[in-house]
Amino acid sequence: MAFGIKKRDVTEWKRKIDQGEIAFLTHYWLDDRFPHCKSVTKVGCKDLENLKEWGRKYHLQPEWIHHRKDGYSHFDLLGDKQAEILSREGIENPML
After folding, report:
1. CA-CA distance, 65 to 12, in Å (whole number)?
2. Judging by beta carbons within 10 Å of its beta carbon (0-12, 13-18, 19+), is residue 42 exposed, middle or buried?
3. pTM: predicted TM-score of the whole model, two decimal places
4. CB contact at 8 A, 40 and 27
5. φ, ψ of residue 78 in degrees (nearest 5)
6. Which terminus, N or C, of the chain has the lesser number of Cβ atoms within 10 Å?
7. Cβ distance 86 to 58 under 8 Å?
8. What residues does each domain of the chain span?
9. CA–CA distance, 18 with 2 (Å, rounded to integer)
10. Are 40 and 26 in contact (CB under 8 A)?
11. Backbone angles phi, psi at 76, to 5 degrees
12. Largest Cα–Cα distance of the chain, in whole Å?
């Protein structure tokens, strides 16, 4: 279940993706499969080759991309990997 996110944040994330940028969207999230996680970061890009290349920097496998028909394909970052990547990208996030 996702919560704690504003429509304008989703709109901005989609705008950046549409422009071919690597876009980050973090929100609170609860899922019984991942009881230790309280948030998720979605990292998307319209250019899937660019997204795959970005993911390789962090040892993310291309098959981990959530492929969406609407064009907003993305990696889901959770837990320690999420914190590590956001830190390396210079993104401060109070949800972690």
Report:
1. 20
2. buried
3. 0.91
4. yes
5. -135, 155
6. N
7. no
8. 2-88
9. 22
10. yes
11. -105, 120
12. 34
**How far apart, in whole angstroms, are the C-alpha atoms of residue 30 and residue 53?**
29
DSSP string, 38-79: SEEEEEE-SSHHHHHHHHHHTT--GGGSB--TTS--EEEE-H
DSSP symbol at 26: E
Query: How far apart are alpha carbons 92 and 77 in whole angstroms?
Result: 15
CA angle, corner 7, sides to 92 and 45, nearest 5?
Answer: 60
Residues, the chain, total?
A: 96
Tens of pLDDT along 7-58?
A: 999 999 999 999 999 999 999 888 889 888 999 999 999 999 999 999 999 9
